[in-house]
Amino acid sequence: xxxxxxxxxxxxxxxxxxxxxxxxxxxxxxxxxxxxxxxxxxxxxxxxxxxxxxxxxxxxxxxxxxxxxxxxxxxxxxxxxxxxxxxxxxxxxxxxxxxxxxxxxxxxxxxxxxxxxxxxxxxxxxxxxxxxxxxxxxxxxxxxxxxxxxxxxxxxxxxxxxxxxxxxxxxxxxxxxxxxxxxxxxxxxxxxxxxxxxxxxxxxxxxxxxxxxxxxxxxxxxxxxxxxxxxxxxxxxxxxxxxxxxxxxxxxxxxxxxxxxxxxxxxxxxxxxxxxxxxxx
Length: 281
Prior knowledge:
With about 280 residues, the chain is α/β, with parallel strands linked by helices. It has nine helices and ten strands. The protein has an eight-stranded parallel sheet with strand order 7-6-5-4-3-2-1-8. Strands 9-10 form a two-stranded antiparallel ribbon. Helix 4 (about 110-115) packs across helix 5. The two termini are about 15 Å apart.
């Protein structure tokens, strides 16, 4: 989808809906083609539309177009959008919110109140915080274990040799259940090799936790490679919604280490297929 220096959502509602509908059709066709290429049923692949930096109106339009899974990287933004779309709770298929970004412990209680699936559980301290949040909210929260495929701590993820212990901790934590794994393809390495490693780790995890069947991998630039490696969830942002609108100054862009301090979106847009950590492009 073409973007300009102006915010892509600065359009009349009808025009924006048409833009989103066209982009959704293109992404859906890519997923279906990728599935056909490796003999998979596309119905086994969940499209998570990552709406970070986009207004709630975009999320609402995507839901109206049939998208049921919406992803966010930042609690402040996600909680606001979940509240904005709360009127859809009575819909036969209400929005399911996925938290896909790096998660701070002090945000865990908030995320546990609205998220259907947390993709970025990567340390024991976060397990404890999410467990407390889920119990307080009276919910059982599904968790994906984010795996580091390159050992870069700046991009999040538990090292492969710590995955089993972390999964056991989630399984033992009240209010949580291990649902599978998530990873971001490393920089400077073919995505195919990285996703194949993730698939092997996922298979090993299922030996001890048969219910942990989800594999969250693939973004706008590499979804076909992720589908070929067995991804059950693809996290798509820019291919659906256009380039991100980030603040010109005064805070780390969304997806950075200080991911809760950025200000309102400005007219500057960026687009990348290597968003750290845990994000989507």
